[in-house]
Amino acid sequence: MKKIKDLKKMNKEEREKKMDELKAELIKAKQSKDKGPKSKEIKKMIARILTLNNQKNMEVKE
Fold it and tell me: How far does Cα 2 stand from its chain's mean position?
């Protein structure tokens, strides 16, 4: 998983692509019998990306 500083370096399109990949990975993790900590980590990473996108949108609006 990437760190937040790595996500900040990405542009919006790259973050959107990464989020799509993570969503697909989350679906696969949920379908497997062993959900475990992996799906939790994926959800956290998606939340980080969404938060970062929202922060960037707020900066643009100001």
Answer: 9
Predicted model pTM: 0.81
Q: pLDDT digit string (tens) for 10-50?
A: 888 999 999 999 999 999 888 887 667 888 899 999 999 99
Cβ–Cβ under 8 Å, residues 53 and 15:
yes
Q: Using alpha carbons only, what angle is made at residue 28 by residues 25 and 33, rounded to the nearest 5 degrees?
A: 135
Whole-number Å distance between alpha carbons of 45 and 62 = 26
**What separation in angstroms does the CA of 30 have from each of 7, 8, 37, 47?**
24, 28, 11, 17
